[in-house]
Amino acid sequence: MNQDMIIIDGSSNEGGGQMFRSALALSVLFQKQFKITNIRSNRPNPGINNQLLNQITLITKIIKSEVEGLKLGSEEFQFRPLQKFLPQDIICPAQTAQSITLILQSLLPISINAQKQVSITIHGGTYLNHCPTIQAWSTIFLPIINQMGLKCNVKVLKDGYYPQGGGLIQAVLEPVQNTLNQLIKKEFTKINKLNCTYLLGSPSDTQIFDQQIVDELKQYAENGQLIINSEIKIVNSKKFKKCYGISLVSHSNLNSYDYTIINDSDKTIEETLANVIGNTKSQLEQQTCFDDHHQDQLLLLMALAKGKSEILVSKPSTHTESLKYVIQKFLPECLIEFEKTNIKDNYIISVQGVGYMFE
């Protein structure tokens, strides 16, 4: 397993699991073997954690491959794909609150190569800390990749929360026709609509909080007018008796943004909402086309697309820097540039895609 081995330093930049997931996807798509060292070395508990172990194990079950170092706590791992993805429906069980969206991130680039419809059933958590929520995925990420020619429909059958999980989704991926389209998003427009999900320990009247959100954010709205649609989801947890979190997504005519906060410990609605509104204001002040959570999620697909993609963001995140590093290990011909603009110190991320042919 040493011939033409790509070596990845897992401690580079952000040094998290996103590097690992992207390396696996690129390895399968381009049939290149890799070795990753210093896995999650920047984390309090370095090495392969339970969530990564489940994701890698799932991929090794659906992709014939040779692996070394696939165990909990391992800080070094080698992977050699022996085939590409063969058309099949995928079922991913879970006993804990593994992130459903992170599993989708792992499977999406691999399984769209099937050239037939693929159904994916995943058990786990839909609203977890430090992970994209299923609401953000469904209302922001999926519409964007649909523009790129990647059609994925997700149906939430049951929500899942930390620590017990219990969520269930079904995703259906349609085959990509030849290549992915380039993505151009460089124009900021003011918001006009909000979707808010209160994740609470018990039922509560949230109308006053809806009004507070509108009052504090209408300065960023088109003509000072904002529509808000809200809902309450009850989280049955001994740890979160007050407020598990608040998921707020804003929309403009061209762009959408995620400002979700999932609490580490039980907090009041008021405390959580203050953090959400503060986060939202700081993001909207930047006048970009993406929130900080989505720029890195798109980088891999932009690298696979045909043509030059350009998106307007605030300063590239450490996740984005890490992905650039991994992508260029596998695809040195893929030019990825971060160009600073003269407006609010924002950046244009440009990616000259390799035009990967899905077949």
Would you write up a description of this structure?
The protein is 29% helix and 28% strand. The chain is α+β, with helices and mostly antiparallel strands. Strands 10, 11, 12, 13 and 14 form a 5-stranded mixed beta sheet that branches. Helix 1 (17-30) runs parallel beside helix 2 and helix 5 runs parallel beside helix 6 (269-285).
Q: Which segments are poorly predicted (pLDDT under 50) over 5 or more consecutive residues? A: none
Discrete helix count: 8
β-sheet strand percentage: 25-35%
Largest sheet: 5 strands, mixed
Number of strands: 17
Can you tell me the overall shape? globular
Share of helical residues: 25-40%
The residue-averaged pLDDT reads: 92
InterPro entries: RNA3'_phos_cyclase_dom, RNA3'_term_phos_cyc
Organism: Paramecium octaurelia
Pfam families: RTC (PF01137)
Protein name: RNA 3'-terminal phosphate cyclase domain-containing protein
Condensed summary:
This protein is α+β, with helices and mostly antiparallel strands and about 350 residues long.
